[in-house]
Design goal:
This protein is mainly alpha-helical. The protein has two domains: 234 residues, Rossmann fold (3-Layer(aba) Sandwich); 93 residues, Tyrosyl-Transfer RNA Synthetase (Orthogonal Bundle), CATH 1.10.240. The chain is built from 16 helices and five strands. Bound molecules: adenosine-5'-triphosphate and magnesium ion.
């Protein structure tokens, strides 16, 4: 079976380092590996509207921002199809049929949705669309017969929900849909990168992000005010590495070559951590090291973004062409789904023929 990738992001803001290590970097590597027949990358505006329905302008203003971030990290429109969810009406149609296959209590049990409901103070009154967005995600994934979905850890419950829908659909109707697999980052700290404030997840909604498009000065300021170890007051104090966001970022980004280039007094991260735990290593020194690594990683991304910002017409055209391509694939799957569900009345004459036999004999 050919391998197909589908993944995406909500246009609720620009993309950040959490997206980068959790999914974007991997997508680019997979795109370039040549092992996938299709790579589809979706800007999930319809999903973003499920909790931003009263602020459509916010979504509209972030569509091209997300597209610029995609292109700047190296997603290549000649290898990957970049498209916008709302422009593929087949996805909404699939969602409607899949809703029959999922119970309300099953949706309420989804741990990611549960914590997002809490975060948004939706407990008293949950918008139905928001509760059901995992079903719409199942439509997104299955419409393209995706086999592989590179995502962060928060998306695992969505993948499980999709797999359940696929199994149920295939067993009730006819073998039509493909069961996808999540592809988590190889490095476990990248599954859920914490915020600069030390909170469990860097997230647009929590305002604790370093954005890919942040200027070097802005990145400098954010790193210098990062959460470390509140008990590490003097340089001589022993420090904690666990729960210390600077060390978590080093776990995510630091490679052996960075020591030779930026911090030759240490051979590797273990030595640096041991010194911090012993005491005698200040926060400023580790923050400066992290900054050198991140600025180097972000520099080519910023440069590519600048080029595309100067050529915004091209970005618009890339999305428009991507929507056309994606729609053709989704249409094909929807036709198969409708045939499996026996609602393809006008596809051939078998529907009419059955009635004729009933009434003309
Ligand atoms: P929002 O707050 O609007 O939900 P978000 O920052 O959570 O935004 P999404 O668009 O929901 O971003 O997530 C897009 C992709 O990025 C998903 O695959 C998700 O797993 C991954 N991702 C998001 N934040 C992180 C993070 N901090 N660490 C690792 N992966 C992440
Ligand atoms: Mg999210």
């Amino acid at each position: 079976m050919s391998k197909i990738i589908l993944t995406g992001d909500r246009p609720t803001g620009r993309l950040h380092l959490g997206h980068y290590v959790g999914s974007l970097k991997r997508r680019v590597a997979l795109q370039n590996s040549g092992e996938y027949e299709k790579v589809l990358i979706m800007i999930a505006d319809a999903q973003a509207l499920t909790d931003n329905f009263d602020n459509p302008e916010k979504i509209r203003q972030n569509i091209l921002e997300v597209a610029l971030d995609y292109l700047s990290v190296g997603l290549d429109p000649s290898l990957s199809t970049l498209f916008i969810q709302s422009q593929i009406p087949e996805l909404t149609e699939l969602t409607f049929y899949y809703l029959n296959l999922v119970s309300v209590s099953r949706l309420q049990r989804n741990p990611t949705v549960k914590s997002e409901i809490q975060l948004r103070n939706f407990e008293a009154s949950i918008p139905t669309g928001f509760l059901c967005y995992p079903v719409s995600q199942a439509a997104d994934i299955t419409a393209f017969k995706a086999t592989t979905v590179p995502v962060g850890e928060d998306q695992l419950p969505m993948l499980e929900q999709t797999r359940e829908i696929v199994r149920k659909f295939n067993s009730i109707y006819q073998e039509t849909l493909v069961e996808p697999e999540a592809l988590l980052p190889e490095n476990s700290v990248c599954c859920r990168l914490p915020g600069t404030d030390g909170k469990a997840k860097m997230s647009k909604s929590l305002g604790n992000c370093i954005y890919l498009a942040d200027s070097p000065e802005c990145v400098h300021q954010k790193i210098m005010s990062m959460y470390t170890d509140p008990q590490h007051l003097k340089v001589s104090d022993p420090g904690h590495v666990e729960g210390n966001a600077v060390f978590t970022y080093l776990d995510a980004f630091c490679e052996a070559r960075h020591f030779a280039e930026f911090l030759p007094d240490y051979a590797n991260l273990d030595e640096l951590k041991a010194h911090y735990e012993r005491g005698g290593l200040g926060d400023v020194k580790i923050k400066k090291f992290l900054e050198a690594i991140l600025q180097q990683e972000l520099e080519p991304i910023r440069a590519r973004r600048k080029e595309y910002e100067q050529n915004i017409d091209a970005v618009y055209d890339i999305l428009k062409a991507g929507c056309g391509k994606a729609r053709a694939i989704a249409q094909q799957t929807l036709d198969e789904v409708k045939a499996a569900m026996k609602i393809n009345y006008f596809e051939d004459d078998s529907f009419l023929q059955a009635y004729k036999e009933k009434y003309q004999n």
